[in-house]
Give the backbone structure.
Amino acid sequence: MSTVAQPPLVGIDAPELTVAIASLALGGAERIVLDWAARVQPAWRVHVIVLRDHAHEWPVPPGVRLTRLTGTDVPVALMDIGRRIAHSDSPVCVCHLLTSAERAALCEGGAFVVPVVHNAREGWIEDAAALAGTSQVIAVSNAAAADLRRHGCDATISVIRHIPKLRRFARDARVTWRRAWRIPADATLVGMIGAVKPQKNYPFAVRLLRRLLDNRDVYLTIVGGPVGRHGREAWSAVLDAMTETGVRGRLAMPGFIADAAASLPAFDVLLNTSHYEGTSIASLEALVNGVPVVASRVGGQGELGSDGLTLVDKNAPLGEWASAVSAALEMRPSYPAWAGFPSFRLWTLAQLARPTPRNDRVLFVTANLNAGGAQRSLVNLAAALRAVRFEIAVTGDSTAEYFFDALRTSGINVYRTAASRDPFDHAERIVARVCAEQIGTVCFWNVDPKIKLLVTKALDFTNVALVDVSPGPSSFDEMRRTAEFGRTIAFAERDFYQRLDRTVLKYDTPAPRGCADKISVIPNGVPPPARVKASYDIAAVPRVVVNGRIAPTKFLVEVVNAMAIVRRAIPTAELHLLGGAEPRHADYAAAVRAAAGEDLDRTVFLHGASGDSVDRLADFDLLVVLGRDQGSPNALLEAMAAGLPCIANDDGGTGEQIRHEDTGLLLQDRTAETLAPAIVRLLSDRTLAGRLGCAGRMHALRSFSMDEMVARYTTLFGSLARARSSEEVTA
Amino acid sequence: MICPECNGAGRVRKRFLIFFERWKRCPTCLGSGEYPPPVADRVGYRPARWRDDDDGDTWAARGYGAGAIASRLQESREQEAPPRDDAFEVGTGGRSGGAGATASWGDAASDNAPVIVDPFAGDASAVSGVAGGAIAAEAVDAADSGSSSDGSFADGGDSSSVDSGTSY
C-alpha cells in the first residue's frame, strides 16, 4: 500500500444521463439502450424517456428513472424535458429512433441532442438530410457511418459498436428450450433470432434448411415474430417456403421470446441471412457467448472480427451457405478477443460530451507525478506558466510526493481523475470535467494512449483543442501498439492524429502521417541553476555523477561497468548515483548493486532520491546520461546549465543538446567499452572538460531556457484559443 | 475441470436417421473438453499501465498474460451474470407470461413436429405447453406493433420516420 500523498480525486457530481427512445419494443436498439442503462449504474444515474408504449417490451432495469410519454402531447412533453435538462448538469440527450421533429422539440427546449442511427441506408425512413444541423451523430457500425457520409451527412459521426455482456445460462437451458420447441435434445439445431420482416430473408433460410438436410440431420428455429407493415406477409412467406420445401418437421417458429438471447445455448450455430443490417446485436450476443455465427456480409457484420464468425455474400448460392453452416458446425468454438470489452461505456462518454464555448483554459492530463523527466518538465512549466489559466489532471498513482508538493505549493489546481487504473474511468471524468468547466484546450502530457483515444473520440465533435506533447518515436510506437483497442472502440491512431490540433515534439523528429502538418517542436527548458561550477580542477578524487532514477532504461549497470574500466587508469575515480528506484525496479537496483560488487560504498555510491540533486551537480566533475527513447532529457540540460561537462549517448533529443566535442561528448552507443574512454578523457583533460562545460552552459541557457519554453507554450495555447474562436465565428 | 458430458473428449456421439451416429461438438464444453470452456485473450482493454516519461522497459509491475486475462474474464462472467432469482430461465415461465397456449400451426401438435405459433391469433399466442415448463413466447400483430427498432412501420402515424433498426 502506497503511503505517498496523492492529489485529491476530482469532485464531479455525477449528473443524470438522459436518453430518449421511441419505444422499448423487443428490438436491438432498445436492447442496447437498456443494456447500457443497466451496466452504467450506479456510477451514473440514468433517465430513459420512452415516447410510446409497446405491447411487448424489454424489462427496464431497476434503478433507471423512466418517463413514458404515451398519452401526452409528445412534442410539448419533449420540449418541456429539453427545457429541464438544458438547465441540469447534463444537457445531453442521446436519441434512439426519434424522428427529426421529435429531436427538434428537445432542441427547442434547450437540450443538446445526439441522434443515433441504427441501420443501413435501406432501413432509414428519414433521409440523411434530416440530420442537417446536428453536431454529432452516432452510428452503430462503420458501415452505417459510411452510408451516412455517402448520403451527405456532414456532422461528425462517431461509431459505437455495442458489445453485449457475457452472460451465464441455466445449466439445463439447452435441453429445456429444445423440449419446449419439440426439437430432439441431440439434434443439430440452427438458430435465428430477429423479428420476422422481409429484410431478414427467412424464406431463404428455410430453403437453406432444405439444402442442409441433404447431408445432415438438422433443425431450424426462428425466434421472433412478425413486425411492421410487412410483417404478416413476411411470416406467410416463411410458411410458404416451408410448405414448398417440405421441411415442416424441421422448423420451429416460437414467436417472440422476452429474452431471446437466453435461448442461445439451444443452438449449435446462429444464422443471419439479412439483406441489410446496421449491426446485429443477436450475432454479437451469440459470438460473445461462444456460439458460432454464419451471417450475410452486410452492414456492420464482421467489423468486430471473430474466429467464430463466417460471413457469406448475401447473394451467394445455397451451396455456399450450406458449406459455411456445415463448417461452422464442426468449428471448435472460441470466444472473440473483444468478449467482455466494456464498449457500453462509449455511450456514457457520448452522454457526457457536449460543445463548449471558446475558452482559453487549459487542462494538462498526465499519467502520474513520479520522479521522471516528463513530470519534471511539466512541473517546471506549470510553475512558470503565468499567462495561462490551467489545471492538471493526474490519471494514476504517483510514487513520489516531490512534484505534487511543488505544484500544491505553487497554488496549482491538481487532482486525480480516478483511483482506478481503468482508462474508461479516467476518460469519463476528464470529459465530464472539460465540459462542465468549459475548458478550451486539453493537453496530453505523457498519458496512456487508451485514455488519449477515448477522450479524443468523445470530444471529437466539440471545439475543444487537443494537444499531445510527445517525447517522440516511443510515444508513436506506444500509440501504434494500442491498435486493437482503437479498432474495438472504432477510433484508431489515424483518427487520433487527424483530430489533434497540435502535436508538440520535444525535439526535431519525424511525426506520424496525419499530424505532420501540425507539429510544433518545443524542447524542454530549465531554470537557471542555483549553483554553477566555478572550477574544473579536480578537488580530491574524480567524481562522476548520474542524476536520475534507477531504472533499466538508464543503463546504470553499463555505467558501473564503465567505471570499473575507468579505475584501471584512474583508481580513485568515484561514481555517484543521485536517484532512487521505484519498487517495480527493485530487481534492477539489485542488479546495479551487484555490478558494483565490492566497490559499492567505496567508489560507487547510491545516494537515493532527493529534491535538491540539481543544486549538488556543481560538486561533481562530469555527468553521464545514458538512455533510450528519450525526448529532451532534463537531467542533461540541468547539468549543462550548471556548467558540468557532460557525456550522453545519441538518443532522442540529446543530439540537439550535445554537439559532439563542442558542448559535450556524444556517444554512438551505450556500452561500457565506449563510455569508459570518454570518461577517462574528460577526467584527465580538465582543459577540455572546462571548455565543454562552459560551452554547454551557454548552449543550455540560450537554447533551452525556461523562459523560452514558457513563451512558446503560451503562444501555442493562445493561438489555439484564437483558432477555435474564429471557427466558432465562421460556424 | 474436465467436461462432465464428454469426459474431456470435446465431442459426443449423436444419433440421426435412427440407424446412424456421428460425432458432434459437445454442447456443454463447446468442444474444448473443459468446463467451463476456456476463453480467449481479451482485446487490449486493460488497466492503464504504470508509465514514466521514457520508461518503456519490460520490468512492468504487473503481468497481464493470457492466463490472467482468461481468468479475469471468467471471473467477470461470473460476476456479471444476473442473480439466479432475477434471471429469466427456461422452465420457470417467462417474465411476460403467455405460457401454455397450444401450438397453432398445421398439425404440429399431433405429429410432434417442432412448434410454430400463430402470431395472428386473437390473443398474443405462445408456444404449446411443454412438460416440465413453459416458455414465454409472444407474437406481435402487425397492426399494433410499435417498434422493434425497424422504423419501417407507422405507429399511430406519429413515429413513421424512425431512421434505424437492428436485427432483433
Summary: Confidence is low (pLDDT under 50) at residues 53-110, 123-168 of chain B. Helices of chain B lie at 66-80, 108-111. The CA atoms of residues 60 and 153 of chain B lie 56 Å apart.
